[in-house]
């Protein structure tokens, strides 16, 4: 992997692929939380403990135990600037917790950036697998295999009654968080989104924004994930999420068909106005850009903007974030400078990416 490619390229390689139901589901993710037996959780661990954990877990990769994943890059957080950490969060390769609070943190990254293994985050070990589109079973299969490799080498903190022990009680049990990132503009425009999300929460799932817990659902992007990790098997957790997500996909597609059948002139006007504004604006803040990119993405999948590439929109979703903008231009930018730079970047990519 080219040095620092993970902060210089907006799109992870896996994001360039088209997965099942990718018109609605951007990605599927499974994250597994584990801890080393007999060592305090990272937030309470002394420096010598966290260093020991980091060396032990990095050693699993260094000894070739993860060769099945292909080329790997092992990075200690101390080697990165604050801006590089922010870019990695924007690309969903590390968590905000690892970027902001970790002592002696590190991560292991595959060439395609579809696997990110975080060390000394909220837990000692967090294995994250990402797949394009609606492939939650595939993401779970990969994560489970990686977990098995680590478990052969590491004595996990495990209780016969409660399962895997984690820093946060909500992860105790299986330690699994499975999620799908969904683009639901038609449900928002038709006023159905609150009813759908309320029903989702009643069956034990959580709905968050683009960057997980505490984040706003900008650009009509919603992350749907399991809340229960104790009392259900891994397979039950994955299958429940799969079935509920499948129903949401069906509702979104039905809402899109309704918009096209009953309000085509209005929805086409909305899509083309957003395209026109993004193609010519001199200043664009992140919230407006997210909403207008959402309109364009909807237009692409409704066949209203057939010449716009979905890959271009995926790239802009990441490259217009504050950290990536500043990394790309090699300097810290004031808010207005960022808005001007964001507008310039969007104009350029829409002109060349159609």
CATH secondary-structure class of the largest domain: Alpha Beta
CATH topology of the largest domain: Creatine Kinase, Chain A, domain 2
CATH architecture label name of the largest domain = 2-Layer Sandwich
Number of domains: 2
List keywords for this structure.
354 residues, alpha+beta, Creatine Kinase, Chain A, domain 2, 2 domains, 8-stranded antiparallel β-sheet, two-stranded antiparallel sheet, 47% helix
Mind explaining what this structure looks like?
A motif (RDXXRA motif of the pArg binding pocket involved in allosteric regulation) lies at residues 338-343. Belongs to the ATP:guanido phosphotransferase family. It catalyses: L-arginyl-[protein] + ATP = N(omega)-phospho-L-arginyl-[protein] + ADP + H(+). This protein folds into two domains: 1-17 and 26-173, Glutamine synthetase/guanido kinase, catalytic domain (Creatine Kinase, Chain A, domain 2, 2-Layer Sandwich), CATH 3.30.590.10; 263-353. It has twelve helices and ten strands. The protein has helices spanning 5-8, 47-62, 82-90, 96-101, 136-153, 185-189, 193-202, 234-280, 286-301, 310-319, 322-329, 335-352; strands at 25-34, 72-76, 106-110, 115-119, 125-132, 158-159, 163-164, 176-183, 205-208, 221-226. The strands form two sheets. Strands 2-3-4-5-1-8-10-9 form an eight-stranded antiparallel sheet, covered by helices on one side. α3 (82-90) packs across α11 (322-329), α8 crosses α9 and α9 (286-301) runs antiparallel to α10.
């Amino acid at each position: 992997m080219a040095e620092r490619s993970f902060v210089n390229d907006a799109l992870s390689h896996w994001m360039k692929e088209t997965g099942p139901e990718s018109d609605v589901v951007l990605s599927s993710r499974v994250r597994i939380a584990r801890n080393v037996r007999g060592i305090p959780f990272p937030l309470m661990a002394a420096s010598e403990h966290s260093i020991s954990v980091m060396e032990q877990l990095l050693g699993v990769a260094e000894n070739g135990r993860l060769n099945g994943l292909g080329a790997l890059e092992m990075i200690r957080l101390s080697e990165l600037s604050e801006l590089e950490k922010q870019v990695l969060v924007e690309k969903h390769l590390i968590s905000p917790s690892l970027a902001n609070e970790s002592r002696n943190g590190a991560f292991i990254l595959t060439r395609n950036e579809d696997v990110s293994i975080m060390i000394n985050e909220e837990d000692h070990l967090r294995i994250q697998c990402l797949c394009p589109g609606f492939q939650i079973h595939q993401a779970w299969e990969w994560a489970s295999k990686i977990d098995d490799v680590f478990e052969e080498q590491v004595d996990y903190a495990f209780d016969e009654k409660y399962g895997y022990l984690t820093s946060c009680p909500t992860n105790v049990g299986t330690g699994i968080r499975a999620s799908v990132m969904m683009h639901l503009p038609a449900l928002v425009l038709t006023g159905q989104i609150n009813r759908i999300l309320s029903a989702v929460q009643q069956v034990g799932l959580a709905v968050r924004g683009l960057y997980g817990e505490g984040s706003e659902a900008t650009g009509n992007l919603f992350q749907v994930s399991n809340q229960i990790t104790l009392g259900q098997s891994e397979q039950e957790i994955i299958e429940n999420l799969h079935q509920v997500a499948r129903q949401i996909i069906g509702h979104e597609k039905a809402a899109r068909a309704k918009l096209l059948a009953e309000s085509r002139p209005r929805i086409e006007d909305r899509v083309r106005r957003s395209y026109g504004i993004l193609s010519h604006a001199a200043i664009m803040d992140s919230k407006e850009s997210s909403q207008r990119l959402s309109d364009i993405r909807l237009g692409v999948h409704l066949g209203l903007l057939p010449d716009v590439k979905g890959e271009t929109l995926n790239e802009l979703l990441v490259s217009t974030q504050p950290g990536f903008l500043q990394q790309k231009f090699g300097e810290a930018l004031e808010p207005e400078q960022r808005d001007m730079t964001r507008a310039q970047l969007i104009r350029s990519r829409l002109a060349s990416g159609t």
